[in-house]
Amino acid sequence: MVWLLALAIGALYAGGLYMMLRKTMVKLLIGLAMIGNAANLLIFTSSGIVRSKAPLVPKGAKTVEPPFADPLTQALILTAIVIGFAVLAFALALVRRTYEAVGSGGLEDMTEE
Amino acid sequence: MVGQAVGRWRIYSVILASVARAMLPLLLVFSLFLLWRGHNEPGGGFTGGLVAAAGFALYAMAFQPRSVRRVIRVDLRTLMGAGLLCAAAAGVIGMAQNKPFMTGVWISWQGPEGIAVEIGTPFLFDVGVYLVVFSVTLSIILSKAEER
Amino acid sequence: MNLLVLPVLVPMVAAASSLLLWKSVSAQRLVALLGALGLALVNGMIFARTQTGEILVLGFGNWPAPFGIAFVADRLAGIMLLATGVIAVAVQIYSFSGIDSDRESFGFYPLTLILLMGVSGAFLTGDIFNLYVWFEVLLIASFVLMSLGGERLQLQGAVKYVTLNLVSSALFLTALGLLNGSLGTLNMAHLSERVAEAGDPGFTTALAVLFLVAFSIKSALFPLYGWLPASYHTPPAAVSALFAGLLTKVGVYALIRTFTLIFTQDPGFTHQLVLLPLAAMTILAGGMGFWVQHDMRRAFAFAIVASVGVALVGLAMTGIPGSEAARTLALAGALAYVFQTMLVKTQLFLMAGIVRRAMGSCDLRTIGGLAATAPWLAAMAMIGLLAFAGVPPLSGFAPKVAVLRASLDLQQGWVAACILAGSVLALAGVARIWSEAFWKKPLHRPDESEQDQPANALARIVPVTGLALCIVALGLGAGTVFDAAEAAARQLLDPSAYIRAVLGGGP
Question: Which of C9, C20, C61 sits opposite B104 (nearest CB)?
Fold first, then answer.
């Protein structure tokens, strides 16, 4: 399972990087989104995967019986997903506005001056 | 612009419009349910806010994005500000009792016939999250949809 | 210890209030000014408390570290917060006349306040994942500020800025995932202990380099600084001044914090072999860019790069084996340099905004004659420019000399040569800007309509003058400044007090 995830993470990073090196803004954006997802999956995988239940304390009990999933990892990924969502939404709007202002979605059509 | 005028808004599909009109209150109630349930079980302000925003997004698709702003009445920026203040207040209440910021404070109320309500600052924080997530998500969706 | 949450809470409440008052721009201005003044006040109080050597800790929600998130204020955080407060007030006053009404009504004030909130949070947090979150808070606010207004040039700059910063964030997140997976904690004090105990320094060193790359994009370290001169000259002066003063310095802060507290397991590699040459090259690259640019604001953008280089050379030299005194001197010089450069860069960018208003352009080839038409501005500009070049008795001199001395004490002659060459380039650039913008007869006369209204001019000249006075005072009181920086450097080089303060475990 870990191997499978590791391969998926590698593929996502590689694909994201490839997309970022293309010449249009939309592909750049897709690349950024892929790298963000790769990082989230990496956090998930590197903290150790166990087949277990949600870390919720049942009614009447004081603690959860192990094995339970690490809630910290989930909190980290959730935070990262939320941030990624906000950033990507903004980047999408920015790309659209830039496309309208520059008249092209190509990165090489951007001038310095 | 395709579609026909029904009432005040131009619509594209009668089926979608009818469904959206019926779903909006249902989704709003469901989002509040998620918010309430979030304290002890899966759910919470974030999912609740997203569900509520999704309800209005559906409405915006069926009618026009402009119609959503009319239906909500309150400006979304006001909701963002109110949400941030709720979340900040949830932290400050603990501070007022001379405990560290964000320490949970609980009020319990014993009603008649064994009804007991316990409400605390984490819930207030969740309400703030709900408002911020709802208003930010919806204003992103609407501002994109209005650009034509 | 609830004082520690106020640098975050005050801007947050002010941002929320100004969102509620979105209909009235003048009410938003008032709230923003009050927010900035409040921030300066609480930051000053925290600075004063940290000056006793005490390390303040606040565990959120009464959770003990390392289980909860803690805010920690040591001397370094106090110094950074103090500068943040001063810059916040200066920029907020300037923006009353320097920001057009379109941007004002599109949320300029709430966004600057959220940016300030993110910066304060980043300086205070004791948890490295929380640092990531504050980085993102300030980045998202800066993205919007950068593109607010939607001019063509500005959008192009914003695309570069956003892309590079998102790459940096993705690297940061990747490094965090691996760190959490390998060491099982994200509390920085706890990490410091775990790294010291860890049996696999190779993996930790690889992680350290990943963090180094992520932070060096944010702090504009050679060779990853390209986004900064490509974007900082595009937004209005108030925005770029805020960025110039604060954003790269958050990256520098993150480097200083992580590479004194956590990643000290292999300084010969991370500090000496990787960071030191890069930082030295940064000085040269920034200096050369500053010297050749035609646009005043782009030249100042390169000046930011150069000063980041000086500060990071100081940090990198703490990893060189040698006398404790020399390493402390290097870090103390770096800290004093960062503090003063935050004020200097803000002042320079605000000044470039005034020049642009007065002349209609910042192009050194066409503007000129400001020494005659605006003598007060010219005098203030002189102070900022000379402070950047490191001319005594202004604020840039003493810290640079300290870093230089340390590099000689540690037998790094080539580093000293880089610093000196950087200073020469800076001086040459300053002389060029001075003669082109202030002495030479202008080729292009601005129309009457482009000229300033005197009433507005006051709100622009006050912050520039105030910052100039701070720069002079820092230069004249160099001894006091340096004592504070040295104490902070000592505290950083011996992290045991920090760890004890956060994790407890008795004195």
Answer: C61
